[in-house]
Amino acid sequence: MYFPYFIAYMAVGFAVSLGVFFWALNRGQFKDQERARYLPLEQRASAPAAKLTRKGRIETVGLFALACCGLAASATAIVFALTQAR
Fold first, then answer.
1. Is residue 81 part of a domain?
2. What is the pTM of this model?
3. In this structure, is residue 20 part of a structural domain?
4. What is the per-residue pLDDT across 65-83, written as a single tens digit (0 to 9) for each?
């Protein structure tokens, strides 16, 4: 029976989601909600893309690796569930 694995998989996903949410709160992602609703209406030219720093590249690679691990875990859980369903 794969029920305990499913619960563990969901618990890890929930913990990661909470971690990202609290990280965003601490970084101030949700502070200026009044201004956010008018951003699509502003008529200014977009700024040129900023050059990615070394730290930015490391974060990008880390996020890509984390996404790949999540997809691999999802695929593993699905394969395990299908093989154990006999």
1. yes
2. 0.46
3. no
4. 999 999 998 899 888 888 8
What secondary structure, in 3-state letters, does 13-78 show?
HHHHHHHHHHHHHHHCCCCCHHHHCCHHHCCCCCCCCCCCCHHHHHHHHHHHHHHHHHHHHHHHHH
50 in a structural domain: no
Alpha-carbon separation of residue 29 from 32, 44, 48, 52 (angstroms): 8, 22, 22, 20
Any domain includes 6: no
pLDDT tens digits, one per residue of 5-44 = 788 888 998 999 999 999 998 988 888 777 777 777 777 7
Q: Phi and psi (nearest 5°) for 21?
A: -65, -45
CA distance 21 to 67: 16
